[in-house]
Amino acid sequence: MSLSSTRLQLVAVTLIILMVFYVIYFSNVNENLFKFSSATKLRSVSPRNFSLAHQCTCPKGSELLKDYIAKDQYEELVKWRAKDLQQYKTRMVSELSRLLFASPNSPLQYPIQGYIVQPLTSTLIPGLGLHAENRSSYKVSLSVSKGILTTNITPEQTIIKGSGKNKLIIESRSLVTLNNLLAKVSYTSTDYHINTGDLATFQFEMHEAVFPIAIKQPRVPVLYEMGTDISSQVTITTKTFQRYKHLRVLLDSIRQFYSNVKIIIADDSFETEHITGENIQHYIMPPAQGWFAGRNLAVSQVTTKYFLWVDDDFMFTEKTKIENLVEVMEAMPELDVVRMKWLLFEFIYFYLLYGIQVATKHQIYIAISVIR
Predict the structure, then answer these.
(1) Residues 360, 93, 216, 130: what is their CA dihedral angle, to the nearest 10 degrees?
(2) What integer is the mean pLDDT of 243-266?
(3) Of 126, 131, 113, 132, which is closest to residue 183 (Cα–Cα)?
(4) Residue 353 above 60 pLDDT?
(5) Does residue 311 register a pLDDT over 70?
(6) Sign for the pseudo-dihedral over CA of 253, 259, 261, 267
(7) What is the pTM of this model?
(8) Considering only 31-35, 182-186, 249-253, which range has the smallest mean pLDDT?
(9) pLDDT in tens, 40-89
(10) Domains in the chain: ranges and CATH
């Protein structure tokens, strides 16, 4: 055998070996990719599609608390919890909690946010419209579940079905006429509820859109005519329990710098002492009702636009400037809370906290630590 033929055989064997390795390698890669893709799909599925039952296991030797409850009591407990959960959902969950998606390239025009109606009150649905190409006839339908749909006008060559019911069908040869009718469609809820919602389904041929309807009573604004004096703008509130010595230090320090500001004290001490003074309201509570009960009592008696909450062992100093807090609140009305913190009579920092509101009052806090 010649040298050239031997070299050709070696090259051929090498190519065959490389091809075998290539097939084995990529078959493994494809298998791993398939496993990864499958696992990714499983992870991408919403958790709501999986049952929560039997998702956790207790270690060996664990005790189930339900085994220590009598069977009849446990069954009653399960029924009570299911009923209470359903009542909670009725109060807190509405149709507006449902996740909605906007379909692409839809000829339907409709409100996607901000459509609010009062209970049992007829309200026009704004923004309804159809933008379609020329057809011999146009037919749309609207349907709701917690109310009725009405329109009072029926032009010529137009068919209207279901006015005064929960499904309204409008058909017209004129697109202009159809859109004029859609602009006059009203929604009226049929069940009285002060804060709920409905979903309206808007259809044209193969196109469908769903938009929310918020059903709730409007909130009456609370308006305050603030004077120029701090005493007409802010009330100081506190809660005390068996600490009259500290409370009197607080009152004396307040009066040193704010002689006319009203002070409201909620007191649930076992042995009460009378706190008197001008513009001081001292409310005696049943003993040991707790901080939250005292806070609620004190805040319920506030008549000014703002109140300043302090603990009964705080003390005001010359650096305590309630006016600065009011200035911030007035300049930024979207705030609910302003807090100033002091430590060992030294100013540390000043910051704003968003998103907290109690009843209809704005809170402003000032914390001044006292050396014990």
Answers:
(1) 140
(2) 94
(3) 126
(4) no
(5) yes
(6) positive
(7) 0.59
(8) 31-35
(9) 433 333 333 434 444 667 788 788 777 888 888 888 888 888 888 887 77
(10) 98-216 (2.60.40), 230-368 (3.90.550.10)
Structural tokens at position 164: 């005064």
- Counting every residue written for the chain, the total comes to 372
